């Protein structure tokens, strides 16, 4: 019998002061933080994202992590990208990340997404296994399948179809 995912809530926020401390704690790095802020419109971006949602991953009063969904300009309205995802260290490997992605999949489906994409570093085998365990398949290296849409053209891109 599969292990049941723990119950969490996704609380949407556009308040930078709510999600930046969590992003810092999950150690995604300053380069990532600056890119994320730029993508969300807190800097100069020539073309704003079509959509961007940032959610705090919550259990009771405690913030466990952060996860987001965005779509770049010009992409199909049926496509969403997972972004800004991290679980605080002390809550990792307890199913909260799985619950967060499952919650984001449900939200993406509600707003009309049929496909979710995500990318990770080419050396991050643990992240690749994690996403694959949730039904994502490897599409390839960003330079070949998503040039300019990730932080680095060597990133690995994964995709999952969303079914009703």
In whole angstroms, how far apart are the ends?
24 Å
Q: Helix count?
A: 5
Number of domains: 2
List the secondary-structure elements in sequence, H or E.
EHHEEEHEHEHE
Classified by CATH, the class of the largest domain is Alpha Beta
Overall pLDDT metric: 84
Shape: globular
Q: What is the spatial order of strands in the main beta sheet?
A: 1-2-3-4-5-7-6
CATH homology superfamily of the largest domain: Gcn5-related N-acetyltransferase (GNAT)
* Uncertain segments: none
Query: Over the alpha carbons, how many angstroms does the gyration radius reach?
Result: 15 Å
CATH topology of the largest domain: Aminopeptidase
Architecture of the largest domain in CATH? Answer: 3-Layer(aba) Sandwich
Report strand %. Answer: 25-35%
For the secondary structure, the number of strands is: 7
* Helix content class: 25-40%
Structural class: alpha+beta
Main pleated sheet: 7 strands, mixed
What can you tell me about this protein's structure?
This protein is α+β, with helices and mostly antiparallel strands. It folds into two domains: 1-113, 3-Layer(aba) Sandwich (Aminopeptidase); 115-164, no CATH class. It is 29% helix and 30% strand. A seven-stranded mixed beta sheet has the order 1-2-3-4-5-7-6, sandwiched between helices. The longest helix has 15 residues, at 96-110.
What is the strand and helix layout of this fold?
Layout: E1 9-13, H1 16-25, H2 30-39, E2 51-59, E3 62-71, E4 79-87, H3 96-110, E5 115-120, H4 125-133, E6 137-141, H5 142-145, E7 156-161
Parallel strand pairs: 4-5
Antiparallel strand pairs: 1-2, 2-3, 3-4, 5-7, 6-7
């Amino acid at each position: 019998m599969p292990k049941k995912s723990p119950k969490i809530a996704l609380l949407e926020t556009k308040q930078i002061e709510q999600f930046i401390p969590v992003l810092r704690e999950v150690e995604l790095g300053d380069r990532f933080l600056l890119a994320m802020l730029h993508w969300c419109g807190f800097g100069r971006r020539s073309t704003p994202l079509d959509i961007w949602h940032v959610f705090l991953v919550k259990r009771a009063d405690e913030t466990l992590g952060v996860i987001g969904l965005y779509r770049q300009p010009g992409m199909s309205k049926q496509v969403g990208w997972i972004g800004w995802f991290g679980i605080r260290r002390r809550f990792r490997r307890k199913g909260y990340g799985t619950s967060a992605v499952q919650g984001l999949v449900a939200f993406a489906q509600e707003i009309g997404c049929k496909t979710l994409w995500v990318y990770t570093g080419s050396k991050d085998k643990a992240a690749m296994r994690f996403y694959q365990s949730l039904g994502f398949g490897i599409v390839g290296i960003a330079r070949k399948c998503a040039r300019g849409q990730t932080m680095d053209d060597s990133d690995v891109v994964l995709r999952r179809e969303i079914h009703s």
